[in-house]
Description:
Helices cover 42% and strands 18% of the residues. The protein is α/β, with parallel strands linked by helices and 363 residues long. The site of manganese (II) ion (MN) has 2 residues, from helix 8.
Amino acid sequence: MNTNNCGTRKIAIIPGDGIGIDVTNEATRVMELLNCSCSLGLELAHFDFGAEKYLATGISLPKEQLEDFRNNYAAIFLGALGDPRIPDMFHARDILFGMRFGLDQYVNMRPVKLFDEKLCPLKGKSVDDVNFVVFRENTEGLYVGAGGFFKKGTKDEVAIQESVNTYKGVERIIRYAFEYAKNHGLTKVTMSDKHNALRYEGDLWQRVFNQMGEDYPNIEKEHWFIDALAMQMIKKPEQFQVIVTNNMFGDIITDIGAQLQGGLGMAASGNINPSGVCMFEPVHGSTPKYAGKNVANPFGAILTVGLMLEHLGYIKEAELIEGAVKRAVRENKTTQDLGGTLGTKEAGDYICKVLSELMQKGK
Ligand code: IPM
Ligand code: MN
C-alpha cells in the first residue's frame, strides 16, 4: 500500500461532473466523519478534473498527476464523468480510462447486494437471494481502443473495434475471482463468455478457466453464455456467488445487477490493482439533467466509500456504512428513486446521523 511520509494515507477525491459532484459531497462527509471519529489517519485531497476544467483549459488528466496518484496515494474516489457539452465523451474517457488503464486497475469489482427486499424489482426475492459479486476485466477487451475508421463519412465507411484478450489479462482476472471465492468461503465461480459466437476470445477464456479451476478443487466451476447469464440473473439470481467476465459483458450485466439491488443509485464499484493504487466510483453516471438539483441518490457513492475503506483494511468502518445504509432504506429515509422524499443532502445527513449513533453504541 502506498503511504506518504507523514504516516497518513492520502485519498484523492475527484467529484467530476453532473451528479458526481452532488453525491461526492455526501460521500466526502461520510469519509470525514469516520476519519475523524475513528482516527483513520486519512488525508483527503480534492481535484477538479472534469468537464469544466477540460473546457476551460484543455486539460483532462495530466500524466504527472497519474504519476502522483501512483506514487503518493492510497486510493482515489471518483464521482462521475460526462457532460453534454462534450458529446464525444473525450475528457471522460481520458480521465476514467487514464486511471483504469494507466494504473493497471485490472479488476472491476461490482458487488450486487440487496439491502432490503422492497428494493428488488423481482417478485418474492429476499436479501439472501441477491448477493453476489461481479469481477469485470477492466483493462482489455473491446475497451482498449484498437480499431479505426476507413473512408469515414462516405457510404463505403468501415468502423472496426477489436477485442483484445491477452493470456496474462485473462489469467489474472480469473485468478482474482477464484482467490476471492476461496478467501471469502464461497463455493462457486461462474465464468461467462460468448464462445459459441466469439471463437478466439471464447477459446482463451475457456482454456484458462478450466485449467485454473483445477487449482481450486473445492470450488464449483460453472459457465453460462453471456446472453443466458443475463436471463439467469433475472430468473434465479440466488444461484450466483462470484461471476467473472470480460470488460464489455461485465459493463452490461452490472447494470442488470444494479437494478436487482434497487437501481443504479445503489451500486458501488472498485477499480482494483491488487498491488497498486485503486479507484472507487459509484456505478451510476453523471446524469446531467439531475445535476445540482439535490435529487441524486448518494447511497451508491456512500457504499463506494465503504468498499474503499474495506479495501484499505478498515473493515469495521465499512460495516458501519453498510449498516447505516440498510437502516436508512428500512426507515424510508431515502431519495425519490427508492420511494423516499429526501434530497441528496438530507439522505447524506441521515447516514451521518445513524453513523454517529452506531459509533456511540459501539463504544
Ligand atoms: C461504467 C461506465 C463506463 C464503462 C463508461 C462511462 C465509459 O458505463 O463504469 O460502467 O463503460 O466502463
Ligand atoms: Mn456501465
